[in-house]
Amino acid sequence: MRSRCSLTEPTQQTQAYGFGDAASWSTLGTMARGSTMMFRVPAAVLCASSMGYGALARDSGLDLGLTLFINATFFALPAQVVLVDQIARGAALSGAAFAVALTAIRLLPMTVSLMPLIRNGDRLPKFGFLAVHFIAISVWVDGAVRLPKLPPEKRFAYFLGMGLGMMAATLTGSSIGYLLASSVPTIVSAALLFMSPTFFWLSQVGTARLPADWLAIAIGCVIGPVLFQIVPGLDLLLAGLIGGTIAFFVGKQRG
């Protein structure tokens, strides 16, 4: 009975996701199916939070073209927010680059865990490195669930479609937030600006699993406002660095 269940369960899951005929999909058809992620709940959340980024970019003096360029080239929302914040504060290019690089460190474990799912056997598909650009929390979570249900040769194209769909959602949200920032009441603009840090914080809380994760979040919440008063240009960077370092060593000692 156990053997029979193990054989039928993957087929049932594949059918449930609409992947029953995935082996016959063309490359473009696979990408198109992956891009339908833009119509699901994660894309709606990211679109709404990107409105906050768009409003923040306009408030910081960026034009729409540069706002969307940053949106497309820095796919992860925290990196976009940190870069715009550093630009608004007049930070040096080296300091801004370092701050953005630190936000990207969290993407390394996601990349390492997702790459085996994209591989076709022992080799990475041609241009497989492009998948790295689209690795962010929302795409990573959905990809980890859906990619194993697909034939290995279809996963890379499907993941690219997912990433492009999510990028379309973020570009749309950023454009709306940018255009509305100066034409809506102040309270609405403030709410748009607050969506980005709120989404980032909720993402941290939603993905926290270990006691060290919760400790890092707690420390950041406590020392963040204090650091803002002391070193307003480096508050976000130092809060993450200090909180993450303390949580890492505490978790290591307990482990």
Description:
There is one protein chain. By secondary structure, this protein is an all-alpha fold. It contains twelve helices and no strands. The chain is globular, with a radius of gyration of 20 Å. The model is unreliable at 1-9 (pLDDT under 50).
Distance between the termini: 39 Å
> Overall 3D geometry?
globular
Strand runs, count: 0
Mean pLDDT: 81
Q: What structural class results from the helix and strand content?
A: mainly alpha
Sketch the topology as an H/E string, one letter per element.
HHHHHHHHHHHH
- Estimated share of beta-strand residues: under 5%
pLDDT < 50 runs, ≥5 residues: 1-9
Biggest sheet character: none
Assign a percent range to the helix content.
over 70%
The total tally of domains equals 2
Number of helices: 12
Oligomer: single chain
Radius of gyration: 20 Å
Summary tags:
single chain, 2 domains, 12 helices
Brief rundown of the structure:
This protein has twelve helices and no strands.
Task: Detail the topology: elements first, then pairings.
Blueprint: H1 2-16, H2 27-35, H3 41-59, H4 64-73, H5 77-88, H6 93-104, H7 107-118, H8 137-146, H9 152-180, H10 186-207, H11 211-230, H12 235-254
Helix pairs in contact: 2-9, 3-5, 3-9, 3-10, 4-9, 5-6, 7-8, 11-12
